[in-house]
Amino acid sequence: MTVWNEDALRAESDANAVTRFFELQTVRRALLLLLLAAIWESYARYLNEPLLLPTLSRTLAAGWSSIIDGELPLRIAASLQLLAIGYAIGIVLAAVLVAFSVASRTGTDLLAMLTGMFNPLPAIALLPIALLWFGLGPGSLIFVLVHSVVWAVAINAQSGFRSVAPTLRMVGRSIGLKGARNVVAILIPAAFPSILAGLKIGWAFAWRTLIAAELVFGASSRGGGLGWYLFEHRNQLETDKVFAGLLTVVLIGLIVEWGAFGTLERRTVARWGMQR
Q: CA distances (Å), 119 to each of 93, 161, 197, 250, 251, in order?
């Protein structure tokens, strides 16, 4: 009887360990990615039309070839450099607008008017204006990137500050926090879930806008980042490299979303108990 109980307990412990393993978010996501990869490979083999849909294995081989010859890393670096500049400028401008909005009713009205006017305007629609103002080159790309970032970040940040509970504001005043100290210690942590959501949305808008803009500007100036990589190999009917470029865009998006923003989320709002 004792031996049977020990075996039962051991089996239950092993089952619990397996359950805990599959409850890990990283494991679940990895399994989903493997499933999607298997579906892609299987369907591409079934279709048997490499010009329309290359297999995942062929796409990975083409991507590896572009990495070895240095083309893909160069394009990635060019895109990320522009993205970092545009994203940073957009965040700074959004912070200025939100600070003005929080400080006065005039600022609130101004931000509401500007977001109502410009937020629905697709950044890609500004390409002709950017071309006239800045010509061919990085300045035009940065202009459309800033437009993609600033409104999403500003709207979410303002919403976060406006949703801070009055009791929290009173707590700050009761312990003697005023001005910048009150903002840093009370308002920003309370509004941070919305601020983080705005940063994530702004990143997503900027990333897809950059790739689309590079398709146009890269085609005009025969240079650029991943967008030009896609354009060039599409014209050469190298579909496997086009899919390798698209896969690179997706993987960079996942790395930033799950890596950078995921880590920031776990160390802030999740640790503070503001998210389940």
A: 14, 19, 16, 25, 27
Range of the domain at 181: 58-270
Residue 275 inside a domain? The answer is no
* 195, containing H or E segment: helix 188-221
Task: Give pLDDT tens digits for 7-59.
Answer: 544 555 544 555 555 556 777 888 888 999 899 889 888 888 888 889 999 99
Is 53 a domain residue?
no
Task: Name every residue whose Cβ is closer than 8 Å to that of residue 177 and which is 6 or more positions away in sequence.
Answer: 185, 186
Q: Around 32, how many Cα atoms within 13 Å sit in the side-chain half-sphere?
A: 7
The H-assigned helical ranges of 48-174 are: 56-68, 71-103, 105-118, 127-134, 138-162, 166-174
Report the domain count for the chain. 2
CATH (domain of 242): 1.10.3720.10
The verdict on 139 and 73 lying in the same domain is: yes
Nearest by Cα to 94 from 147, 143, 160, 164: 147
**pLDDT tens for each residue of 223-276:** 578 888 888 888 888 888 999 999 999 999 889 988 888 888 888 777 666 665
- What is each CA distance from 177 to 169, 182, 183, in whole angstroms? 10, 5, 9
CB atoms inside a 10 Å sphere around CB 27: 12
Q: What is the pTM of this model?
A: 0.82
Tell which phi-psi region holds residue 273, choosing left (phi > 0), alpha (psi between -120 and 50) or beta. Answer: left
Per the structure block, which two tokens stand in for 44? 């591409």
